[in-house]
Design brief:
binds protoporphyrin IX containing FE, six-stranded antiparallel sheet, binds FE2/S2 (inorganic) cluster, alpha+beta, 18% strand
Length: 781
């Protein structure tokens, strides 16, 4: 059976037509999350139509819940999923390839008759065996070795496209997206290219067997295919053993099996041979089909890529985030524990739904909107995270980039044909069975200009650089908001609405040689942005440049929005404290709290009312909650009084000068965790002075690598240079994105993200600025 989907289910009740028995009268049953948890079905209904949308209620109300139908704990928020991936000791991957629907006795007998003995591979192996194996087999996946594979991928892609370029209508899955990733996988692995059609049957059977819910009858058919796949894998290994000089990763694995059989065991080689064909191929085929479907149904994005192929690497990441091919993965608790306040027993099985985390608004602004300019798309969890993160992620990325580059260049007029999409029902692998596309061959650009066919663009292997991601925006209006403060209204240069944002969010304006961050302070749903910019005479020149050069009608580049200063909407009372230009995020928070009907106070201080922006607006919109303080009028904030009067369950949010933030941090030192939230708008971190710094060593527990971090290099740069992905945004210790976990060693904290308590715990550090104390050694997990 295949699941059919309409074009979009966003915004509609996820349970319409499938409401649980006690789902309240007449409306969407989200008012009863417990009932939603009981009704959750991973094999049919809303989850199969759109897993992220189907679990929106859970992200908002019950982010970790037990599904009695599945027998798993379902985890749906970004941070929780990442925390589970990060701790592969407490949350073992041992159940990753377990049959999610247990085999019937008959199917077991059939599998036995084929000597089926699928066991540990890499993805479902515990430590320390896993890391030893991963280290021994990592080389082929390093970026410098993958660079050589680009020509092979392009050659295979072009050959397939040549076959259908004049057809005018094809099923892209059948015509290219199924076969090319399979051929690439076989080349990479060094496996002979025979029996492509048989392999298709085999890998579908393996997926259904592992992640699907086959009927008793289907179990028999699947068991035969899986059994044959197992035997085929064994035969291929024997053939490969007879070619000791063979190239490719599986040949390397076989050689390592002979060299270090206790690490790369016989059982591993056989199991891996079967698993890797699916891991390397099915994942990429499905992700590519999702990518074309998504881009062709967001025509603006497709047209932008056709016009500017440099957007391709980030568009691929956004497709992997918004419509990834692995929507959920599994883990098993090895001890009783707690996740987001929910007690989990030892042995608890977890379904961690990456598709849901990937659209979690707590991490991705406007998370359910597809946006190829999203500057943190690369944070998606589709490749997993931590010690087991996909080893082949850069091969998958490479293939998807090349497909997109070749298709947008040679078939920019491609469109999605009218069709109903069908999907194989299962918990984890997602992509349409077919993808019909159409175009007018008479308009193929290469008919007019044959050279179009051979243009080649090279993208370096690896995650896209954040510096290359920015959208074009136009300045609609420039206003003087107060003395020394300029207000700008910005719109998208293509006339599309700019993405929605949440209170506390900021954007980065790229003007001239300067990239500077400014909080958003207009209304969030207008499709335009408002920022206010203080002219800082002592700054690095960015604000002066904007004040002096920006005029209405100018086109600039804009990065974001991102939110590193989030409002917890569950507090009982709010005290908002703004100093000077720090009013910008605080004003957005006040607007939001007013809209929510929450009790709040707004305290706004400045040197003089002449220099305080938005005075009329704050008075008109927040008059009842507002207290103003102007130094030149002799009115100063009573910070101890504010903190003392904070009712239980209340929270304080502050943005302003360093002195204000530190004073509040001191005053709230003994308050319950989560009481005080702050955002700096500038930093004293202005780079490394090698004269004053010391070199140090960082040991990476996961890979066993020991990095030397010289006096003129940050830890972040040393990690990135070793080919390990770490997110990084500000590189100034302001945003928290480059955090790494520390298990041993003393840290010299230099960031403005961690609280005092978090610093003294000595467990986390911001790798862009913080270092090991006194040139010592630190151990990172
Ligand atoms: C592991 C996804 C392509 C080889 C994984 C995991 C996921 C994943 C979710 C488990 C991660 C975890 O447990 O943290 C994907 C996606 C791909 C892709 C979405 C394409 C878009 C590939 C390719 C190859 C590959 C092309 C090989 C050529 C592997 C291997 C592992 C793995 C060997 C096991 C790593 C370990 O456990 O240490 N992949 N994958 N993958 N993937 Fe991929
Ligand atoms: Fe922002 Fe390090 S990149 S804190």
């Amino acid at each position: 059976m295949a699941i059919q989907t309409p074009a979009s289910t966003k915004g509609s009740c996820p349970f319409s037509g499938a409401a649980p028995a006690n789902a309240g009268q007449g409306g969407c049953p989200v008012s009863d999350p417990e009932a939603m948890a009981r009704a959750f079905d991973a094999f049919e209904g809303p989850y199969q139509l759109d897993p992220a949308e189907a679990l929106r209620w859970s992200r908002d109300q019950l982010p970790v819940f037990y599904s009695p139908k599945l027998g798993y704990w379902v985890v749906t928020r970004y941070d929780d999923i990442k925390a589970v991936f990060r701790d592969n000791i407490l949350f073992s991957p041992r159940n990753v390839l377990e049959k999610i629907t247990p085999a019937t006795p008959e199917a077991m007998e059939i599998l036995k008759s084929y000597d089926y003995a699928m066991n540990r591979t890499m993805v479902n192996e515990d430590e320390p065996a896993h890391m030893e194996r991963r280290r021994a087999l990592l080389d082929h996946f390093l970026p410098e070795n993958l660079e050589q594979q680009q020509d092979m991928v392009r050659r295979l892609t072009r050959a397939k496209m040549d076959e259908f370029i004049d057809a005018g209508r094809v099923d892209l899955v059948e015509a290219m997206l199924y076969e090319v990733p399979l051929l690439v996988a076989l080349h990479f692995l060094g496996v002979p290219e025979d029996e492509i059609a048989t392999l298709k049957t085999f890998s579908v059977a393996h997926s259904v067997n592992t992640w699907g819910k086959p009927s008793d009858e289907k179990q028999i058919e699947v068991a035969h295919d899986v059994g044959r796949f197992w035997q085929y894998a064994g035969e291929v290994i024997e053939k490969m053993r007879a070619q000791p000089e063979g190239t490719g990763w599986m040949h390397h694995t076989i050689r390592m099996n002979e060299k270090i059989p206790e690490v790369v065991t016989d059982s591993y080689v056989h199991s891996m041979m079967m698993a890797i064909i699916v891991a390397a191929h099915e994942t990429t085929s499905l992700a590519s089909a999702n990518m074309f479907k998504t881009l062709l149904s967001h025509r603006g994005a497709w047209d932008d890529i056709c016009a500017d192929p440099s957007l391709i690497p980030n568009a691929v990441e956004e497709c992997l985030r918004y419509a990834g091919s692995i929507v959920a993965w599994r883990r098993q608790a090895t001890a009783p524990t707690e996740l987001n306040g929910v007690a989990l027993p030892e042995g608890a099985k977890l379904l961690i739904v990456q598709a849901s985390g990937n659209q979690d608004e707590r991490h991705f602004e406007d998370g359910d909107t597809f946006d190829i300019y999203r500057d943190n798309a690369v944070d998606h969890l589709t490749f997993g995270y931590g010690a087991h993160q996909c080893m082949g992620k850069n091969i998958g990325r490479m293939e998807m980039r090349i497909f997109l580059e070749e298709m947008t260049r040679r078939l920019p007029h491609l469109r999605l044909a009218e069709q109903e999409f069908t999907y194989m029902p299962n918990t984890s692998f997602r992509g349409p069975d077919a993808l019909w596309v159409e175009w007018d061959p008479a308009l193929n650009p290469e008919r007019e200009s044959p050279e179009v066919k051979d243009v080649t663009r090279h993208f370096p292997v690896g995650a896209p650089s954040r510096q290359t991601i920015a959208r074009k925006a136009r300045v609609v209006e420039v206003r003087q908001e107060a003395e020394g403060i300029l207000g700008l209204t910005l719109e998208d240069a293509h006339g599309r609405p700019l993405p929605k944002w949440s209170a506390g969010a900021h954007v980065e304006l790229c003007v001239g040689d300067f990239d500077r961050k400014y909080s958003l302070c207009g209304a969030p749903d207008t499709g335009t942005y408002q920022v206010a910019i203080l002219r800082e005479e002592q700054g690095r020149g960015g604000s002066r440049h904007i004040h002096e050069t920006i005029r209405a009608g100018d086109e600039i580049k804009l990065r974001g929005p991102s939110n590193l200063f989030r409002l917890d909407e569950g507090a009982s009372h709010y005290v908002l404290v703004a100093g000077g230009i720090g009013i910008t995020p605080i004003l957005a928070m006040a607007d939001r709290l007013k809209a929510l009907g929450k009790p709040y106070e707004l305290h706004y201080a400045g040197r003089s009312k002449r220099t305080m922006a938005f005075l009329d607006r704050v008075a008109a919109d927040h008059g009842a909650a507002l207290t103003l303080y102007a130094d030149d009028e002799g009115r100063f904030m009573d910070l101890p009084g504010l903190v003392e009067a904070l009712p239980e369950g209340g929270q304080i949010y502050s943005c302003g000068p360093q002195g204000l933030l530190t004073a509040l941090e001191d005053l709230t030192a003994d308050a319950p965790e989560g009481t005080y939230h702050f955002e700096h708008f500038s930093t004293a971190n202005s780079g490394l002075d090698p004269e004053k710094e010391q070199a140090f060593e960082a040991e990476l527990t996961d890979s066993g690598m020991v990095l030397q971090v010289p006096a003129d290099t940050t830890l972040l740069d040393a990690i990135l240079a070793a080919g390990i992905d770490v997110a990084c945004d500000c590189r100034e210790g302001l945003c928290g994105s480059c955090e790494v976990a520390v298990t041993e060693g003393e840290i010299d904290h230099r960031d403005m993200v961690l609280t005092r308590a978090e610093r003294s715990a000595n467990r986390r550090m911001m790798s862009c600025v913080s270092r090991a104390k006194n040139g010592g050694r630190i151990k990172l997990s």
